[in-house]
Amino acid sequence: MAEDKKTKILIVEDEEVICKAYADELRDEGFAILIAKNGQVGLELALREKPDLILLDILMPVMDGLTMMDQLRQKDLYGKNVPIILLTNLSASEEKIMKAITKDEPAYYLVKSDWNLSQVVEKIRERLGIHT
Amino acid sequence: MAAINKKKWFIGIMGVAVLISAILFWFFFVIPNLFKLQKDFTYEAEVLSSDNFYNEAKGEFSGASISATKFSYSVIGEQNGVLTIKNTFDVHKLTGEPIFSVERLYGIDPITGKHVAGFGDKNRDGYLFAPKGLKKGEPFTYWHINYDGPAHMQFAGEETINGLTVYRYETHYEGVNIDQTKNLGFLPEVGVTRGINLDPYLQLWIEPQTGTLINYKDETTAYYYDLKTGKRLYPWNKFSNTFKHSSIITQVEIAKQKKLFIFVINLGVLIAIILIAFITILVWSLRHLYTAKKDVAKNLKKLEGNQIKLKEEQVKSKDTATIVSLQNEQLEKTKKATLNVLDDLKSEEKILKDAQLASQNILEDLNIEKSKVEIARAKEEAILLSIGDGLIATDEKGIITFINKTAEKLLGKKSEEVMGKSFFEVIVIEDEKGVSIPFQKRPVSMALAGGTTTTTTGPTYYYVRPDKTKFPVAIMVTPIILDGKIIGTIEIFRDITREKEIDRAKSEFVSLASHQLKTPPTAVKLLTERLLGGKTGTLTEKQKEYLNDIHSENQRSIELVNALLNVSRIEMGAFTIQLNKKNVCTVVQSVLYELKSIINRKQLRLEEVYQNKSIAIPIDEALFRMVVNNLVMNAVNYTAEGGTIHVEYKEVNKGQTLGGKFLGENSFVTVVSDTGYGIPKNQQNKLFTKFFRADNAREKHTDGTGLGLYIVKSILDNSGGSIWFTSEENKGTTFYVAIPMTGMKARTGKKGLVDI
Q: How many structural domains is chain B composed of?
């Protein structure tokens, strides 16, 4: 019950350890967490559960993050507007990524290795318009 | 000169005056005196007189009777320069018996020939005969002996007598009463009851020049008149007098002689005048000559002087002559030498002829060689055709002149399709996005325009085949230059699909590898953060310590991977520089702001110096941040606690020198200076190389990658900026970064560099 009222965040990440770290931190911060291991699952989950925000990795098997984001944005009103934060270790100046960010706005791009957990949390809150 | 002229003038005038007076004297003194009546003057003429008496009883003239008369003049005395001249008219019968005679005495001025009153037996006027120089038509007065009254002679005409021109004068004695009563008193009753008067008609023939009486004729009718009444009664006599022919002739001759005499005198005078003139001129010329002679003498003296000089000169010239003769000798020698040369030339000519023959032989050999060359050429052409790279040759207008087999294959065109056509029309070129490359950017046109070899270094070009497939090309175009003019181009191109694939694979690998490499450290980082954050429970100090160590080591490896990724992109030339106009001051300030906590943590003092808050330059912000970040982090890392970091940023004009470097253009300069360990002098030259860490740095700060400065330098090198430094060990280091005020240079690459 309490989980229904919490803000839902979907983490789409294939690396288990990294996924666990984000999930634990965010749970501690009072968010409800959904997890997907690849873009395909993530897409389904997102459409079904309609999380308030999606943390999206790019390099994943089956379906990568950008494809998932693209497809999601084409789906429905929810899909078009849900805030997405891309979390990856790929550098942002990839042309593909830049295109995706500008096209599939609103999306944020964070390089995992550069950002620590608390910064990520802060960013999430910012995107959600939640002020701490 | 003026004095001489005056003298001449004076002489001239004097001469003329003398001449004129002479002439006047002549005509007014000499001539008259020459023709004045001499004391021995006489005039004689035989006159034929005829009488024709009137018979009173019969009442008719009885008939002419002839008598001879002597008419003469002679000088009988002189009184006061006036000559007394007797004039007789003596009439005789033919037999010689005197009939009657008249004598009169005149006083005559010898010069004029005129009667002078107060002399002679009666006062008379007029001329003895006629004036000299009588003008035609001019009247004069004559006093005839018979009538003894003034005869006013009137011109009656001009006649010629024996070739002599004479003027005939006449008179009827108009108004003059000629009374002969006294003279003819011997006639009955004359002087008693009756008198006699006359009706005369007188003619005189005068030679005008001399005034000589040549002939005279009078015809008179004498009448008886009543003394008491004065009325004419009846004639007495009709008589006439005329010169005898012989007398006329005589007078003519006399006149002629006189005339001749005058003529001769006049001629003589004229001659005399001429002579005088001539003599005067002669004399004058002679005098002139005399002075001329004096001048000549003077000049002669001069000449003598000159002659002496000449002699001196001659001596001199003798010396010159010797010199000249020496020169002549020389000339002779030269002449001989020239002749020798000519001989040599002749032999040269022969050599030439031999050479000509030889060259003809060579020509024949050349022809043989030529055909050899042609064979070789054909072989070469075959090689060219077979080269593995595509080869297209064009002329200076870009018309294709040659295409090899590889090119044909690559482009999917046949030689016949493209030969003689414009390169730009038959070869289709695009960029990666499928946009046609504009004419000016095409390598062939760039080579033709610029005259330099053009290679595709920037964005990838693609050739498009007729079937619309395309392939990436590396193109190199070389212009063909002959005598400084571009006459065509040669393009060699390669299909670089494979290379591009390899490149792409490489960069993808690097990206992927770096991504994969960063995954474990990321996991570690996140988990250590959770642990350190106390989310998993309280930690002991030691646990905290270790976890911190784990975290920082982990961070190092992340940084290393990032740095390696950048380096690989730099090495592959694949990184992009994207420009946007930014306020560089605020960028520097924001980097400093981000690093503030780290600076403070190490107790370092930050000095920020700037004059201008706002300087806008086109830059790639991310790259610029990287540069500033790296330099400031180095300052932080390599300065001991309590030290100072001085950051200055400003616009510096070209021509200034900063930190020992001369700035060639206006630049935005960032200076990061510290009071740290400094860089040992012997290691400074390696500072910007890959993985270099100075020994002291390695000591003080173990976890540097050694790649930072290499990356920073690469960024600046690729974007048109520059970096340099000054450093002294244990004193500090100052880094200078200059970016041109015109901005960074853009670069199209596949990727940007990662933040490090």
A: 5
